[in-house]
DNA sequence: CGGATGGTTGAAACCGTTCAAAATCTGTGG
DNA sequence: CCACAGATTTTGAACGGTTTCAACCATCCG
């Protein structure tokens, strides 16, 4: 099963041939080199993108250069199920590492939504979870200390990567620099570095050469005040 | 035209009888007293809510009591077009002031989406804008100083309220306390108070007895590094 | 080997917090 | 209409988390 299908399947069972369709849709994937924008602020979006390999991010830059990363786009993530309805991109999406990204046309999406209820439902679910993640990030930025905040992000990424099978055991690759972590957490590079050292020194997590190793998961969750409910990974529904 | 219709109409023209339908839908509105939850974290959502008068907010509380407000729900705002798909609320929605709120059933929404394309499109648009606001708040919390951040929020609320006709001239009612402002901006109450005094002293904005008076709009926008594009109020589209 | 990128360190400065108390406002009942 | 209680705003001072600046070190790679 391709990684996109694997993620969507966590939101509920797909129809028999949905999987096959997904295979076809991602056949056109291309590689975006590290650092390149997949789509930029001000662009008029036409297609959607699905990340298959690598790591991308959604970000905004203030006029004076301050940058804030708004979301990580991991393998299996659809970049914008609906932002493409809007006239103009109000933010950019860039590849952090070289990333394999498939392009899905607007028409394809419209076809899916009119003909494939299970798949449509799964796509929806994905966007709802993305929104829930945005909310939790707001809480992290507003009310968690740097220490808690970084711990929280690691918890989140671990669970998200586990779902798509990219995290194995207690470690996962997180191919971002500390500068990017700083732009994600609303912190300075220097402080990120110090917090990571603290977490390492306390035997909670190590972050070296782009790999996160969780040494004490229980402790990490405590520090982060982590409650996984916002990721809605159980796929249950109320309907 | 009721306030909900007025807001939706900014996203594009509605059909002749859409307006009439909206009138019917909000006929059941009830008042939630100030401080009361409209729906709480952990609840299994059944219906949607539309704020017609007053001011509500979406918020989360950490186990130790720290609170973060994630969104303001102003007159004309639909609380959760889709969160109701999820099994369990991962956050709460509470009335800040006494608020008149209508309840819309899930079935009604399904009916609209299957039979009223213009209205459906407008509802969608609204959720996209809500998401864009979340993104901008992340930027504000992560990369703007307290001073810029508060200025930015005032710019945003002014434009949002203007659309629904609740802001007249250069002032609008913002019936929140400084404590709530602090919980929104990820700041302490004391610091919010000082920033407000600074803005007042500089002749930029005044915030007294729940009313915001913008004295120097140009200056305010400059301070906030405000770019209104994320509110997507032009209603234009790319489709 | 040299240059570039990313990580680490130290010290000083600053923004924002905390604590604690006073002042002001608001609504309510007498 | 006043008095009082509670909520909200304001003030001062000390503290601390985080930033900034400015190096220095490590690693990778051609």
Q: Could you please describe the fold and organization of this structure?
A:
The structure is a homodimer of 239-residue chains. Chain A has helices at 3-9, 18-25, 106-115, 117-143, 146-163, 178-185, 189-201, 217-224; strands spanning 30-32, 37-39, 48-53, 56-61, 67-73, 92-95, 99-104, 171-173, 205-208, 211-214. The first copy, chain A, has 239 residues and is an alpha+beta fold. The first copy, chain A, has a 4-stranded antiparallel β-sheet with strand order 2-6-4-5. Chain A has a 3-stranded antiparallel β-sheet with strand order 1-7-3. In chain A, a hairpin with a 2-residue loop joins β9 (205-208) and β10. In chain A, α3 (106-115) packs across α4. The longest helix of chain A has 27 residues, at 117-143. Chain A is globular, with a radius of gyration of 18 Å. The first copy, chain A, starts with a helix and ends in a 15-residue tail after the last helix. The model of chain A has no long low-confidence stretch (mean pLDDT 93). Chains A and B meet through β5, α4 and α6 of A and β5, α4 and α6 of B. Chain B binds a DNA duplex (30 and 30 nucleotides) through residues 145-146, 177-179, 187-191, 193-194, 196-197, 209.
């Amino acid at each position: 099963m391709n990684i996109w299908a694997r993620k969507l399947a966590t939101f509920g069972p797909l129809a028999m041939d949905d999987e096959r369709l997904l295979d076809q849709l991602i056949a056109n994937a291309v590689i975006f080199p590290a650092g390149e924008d997949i789509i930029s602020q001000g662009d008029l979006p036409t297609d959607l993108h699905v990340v298959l390999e690598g790591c991308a991010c959604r970000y905004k830059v203030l006029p004076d250069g301050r940058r804030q990363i708004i979301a990580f786009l991991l393998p299996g993530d659809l970049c914008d199920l609906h932002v493409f309805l809007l006239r103009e991109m109000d933010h950019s999406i860039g590849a952090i590492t070289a990333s394999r990204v498939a392009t899905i046309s607007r028409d394809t999406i419209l076809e899916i939504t009119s003909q494939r209820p299970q798949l449509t439902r799964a796509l929806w679910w994905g966007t709802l979870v993305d929104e829930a993640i945005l909310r939790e990030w707001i809480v992290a930025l507003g009310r968690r200390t740097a220490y808690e905040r970084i711990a929280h992000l690691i918890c989140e990424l671990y669970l998200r990567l586990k779902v798509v099978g990219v995290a194995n055991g207690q470690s996962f690759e997180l191919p971002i620099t500390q500068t990017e972590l700083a732009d994600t957490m609303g912190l300075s590079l220097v402080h990120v570095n110090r917090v990571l050292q603290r977490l390492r020194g306390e035997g909670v997590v190590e972050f070296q050469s782009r790999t996160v190793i969780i040494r004490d998961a229980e402790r990490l969750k405590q520090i982060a005040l982590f409650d996984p409910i916002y990721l809605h990974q159980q796929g249950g529904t109320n309907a």
